[in-house]
Amino acid sequence: MTSVERVVEYAELQSEAPWETDRQPPHDWPQAGSITFDRVNFSYSVNEPSVLKNLTVVFSSREKVIVFLPTCARSLVCTACDSG
Predict the structure, then answer these.
(1) Has UniProt tagged this entry with the keyword Cytoplasm (predicted)?
(2) In this structure, how many other beta carbons lie within 10 angstroms of the beta carbon of residue 35?
(3) I need a labelling partner for 69 at 20 to 30 A (CA). Which of 5, 42, 77, 82 fits?
């Protein structure tokens, strides 16, 4: 019954905001940019030890990035990011 209970639970969640809105940035925005992580640590929660330690990385404009995240089911989730 766990899967049925989970479906019922998800069906009762409050709706999130729409993916797109009427307000859009200018078509040519941004022209350039980057995302920088400088010596950061990540953990699953505040009380857990860091799983990524002292991470330093720069994502440049127009660079394609793929992030693999472990899940609790011992599988991987792949997320494709476009920093441009």
Answers:
(1) no
(2) 13
(3) 5
Q: Is 5 helix (H, G, I), strand (E, B) or coil?
A: helix
- 3-state secondary structure string across the chain: CHHHHHHHHHHCCCCCCCCCCCCCCCCCCCCCCEEEEEEEEECCCCCCCCCEEEEEEEEECCCEEEEEEECCCCCEEEEEEECC
pLDDT of the residue at 11 = 82
Q: What is the pLDDT of residues 46-73, one digit of tens each?
A: 888 888 899 899 988 878 877 766 666 5
Task: Retrieve residue 23's tokens.
Answer: 């307000």
pTM of the predicted model over 0.70? no
Name the residue type at position 47: N
